[in-house]
C-alpha cells in the first residue's frame, strides 16, 4: 500500500514531473520525504546517463549499464509512481497535462505543482535532411545506430574489391568539437588501432582516417582556454585529423562539404555539433505566454518558475538562464532546486529564491588513457584526468550494480584491448545493400 501524505483527510499535494532525465529524476528523488504525491511521466521507461552514451556507441558499455529502468530507480520511494506516456500539451489554467500512452490512448494528468524537465535533441541548423546521413547521440537508439555504422564500415572495407573502395570505407568524420565530438573521435581511433586490428585479414584497421570538424576556432569552446590546445594535441597524437574553423555546409553519402569549398571524404559521418531544446519548451511558451530565446529555449524566472505561473517550474537543457550551461550537473542542480521550491510551498515556508549554478568543472576523455578537464578551479590531464573522470562518472551513475559493472568494463577495455558490445544492426545479410 502506498503511503499517503499528509496524514489528515486532505488530499496530498500532487507534483507532476515531465521527463526522467537528470533534472526530472533528481527532482523526484529530492521529494522523497516531502508530504507530496509524485508522478514522473516519460515516453521512455528508463533514465539515460547521456555522458556515457558515446561508450555504448563504440562498444565499451551495454545499454543497460547506463539506462536503468525508472521504476527500478524509484522503487523504494513510496510517494512516487512512474507512468510511460508522451506529453502532447499543457493546459495551465486547468492545471492538467495531455499525454498519450503506449497504445496511443489519450491520457489527462492533473497536478498542483508541475516540473518540466524534457531535455534536448539534435539540431542540424536547418538541415534536417542531414540526420539520415549523420546520426547524433542523444538516445539509446542513436547509440545503436552509430555503433552499427562504425562497425559496418570496417566490414565493408573487408569486403571491398579494390584499394580505393577499401580506403573510402575507412574514412570517418565527426562534426562538432565539443566533449561528445572529441570523445567519439578518440574512441573510433582507439577502436581502429587497438581493438579491431587483430580481427581483420584483408584490411589494416589502423589505417582508418578519422577527422574531427569544428566550426569554431578551437575545440571544447566551453572549457577553459588552457585545456583546448592540449585536447587538440592529444587527439592528433592518436591519429585524429583535427580541423577547426571548418563549418559543415553539406553532407552526403560520400563525405562533408566545408566552408571555403573544402571537401572531406567520409562514408561514415557522426553529428555532435548542435543541440535543440525539446518541443515541449515551445508548447509551454505557447500555453503560458513565456518567451523563447534564439535557440528555442524557454525563458523562465530566476527561481525556474514560468512567468505568471509560479506552480510551474522548468529545468535542464530546455531552459535559458544566463551563465548556466546545458550540461548534466546543471540539470541535476536545477532539479533539486525545483524540489526545494515545491517543498517550501507545501510546508508554507520561504522559497529558496533564485537558482545559483555551482560549476564544479568539466571533463572530456580522449582515447583510452587520457582526459582533460577542470575541477574546482584546478586543471588536469593525462592519466590523472582519466582517473578523476572515472571517479566523477561512477559517482553519478544510478545504482551500485551499474557502477560495479561499469568499472569492470572499463578495466577490461583498458587491459584486454577488447570491447564486447560489437553487435551490428541490421544483420550482416543487409551489409551489401546499405552504406552508413
Number of strands: 23
Class inferred from helices and paired strands:
alpha/beta
Q: Compute the number of structural domains.
A: 2
The CATH superfamily of the largest domain is FAD/NAD(P)-binding domain
Q: If you average the pLDDT, what whole number results?
A: 90
CATH top level of the largest domain is Alpha Beta
Q: What is the overall number of helices?
A: 12
Shape: elongated
- Detail the poorly predicted runs: 1-6, 428-432
Indicate the CATH architecture of the largest domain.
Answer: 3-Layer(bba) Sandwich
Largest sheet data: 6 strands, mixed
What fraction of residues sit in β-strands?
A: 15-25%
Distance between the termini: 51 Å
Going across the major beta sheet, what is the strand order? 3-2-1-7-19-18
Main attributes?
FAD/NAD(P)-binding domain, four-stranded parallel beta sheet, 2 domains, six-stranded mixed beta sheet
Describe the structure.
The strands form 7 sheets. This protein has a 6-stranded mixed beta sheet with strand order 3-2-1-7-19-18, with helices on one face. The chain has a 4-stranded parallel beta sheet with strand order 11-10-9-15. The chain has a 3-stranded antiparallel beta sheet with strand order 4-5-6. It contains 12 helices and 23 strands. The protein is α/β, with parallel strands linked by helices and about 425 residues long. The longest helix has 20 residues, at about 140-160. Mean pLDDT is about 90; it is low at about 1-5 and about 430. It is elongated and about 75 Å long. The protein has helices spanning about 20-30, 55, 65, 70-75, 140-160, 165-170, 180-195, 225-235, 280-290, 330-345, 380-395, 400-415; strands at about 15-20, 35-40, 80-85, 85-90, 95-100, 105-110, 115, 120, 170-175, 210-215, 240-245, 250, 255-260, 265, 270, 275, 300, 305, 310-315, 320, 360-365, 370-375, 380. α1 runs parallel beside α10 (about 330-345) and α5 (about 140-160) packs antiparallel against α6 (about 165-170). The chain folds into 2 domains: about 15-120 and about 275-345, FAD/NAD(P)-binding domain (3-Layer(bba) Sandwich), CATH 3.50.50; about 130-275, FAD/NAD(P)-binding domain. It is about 30% helix and about 25% strand.
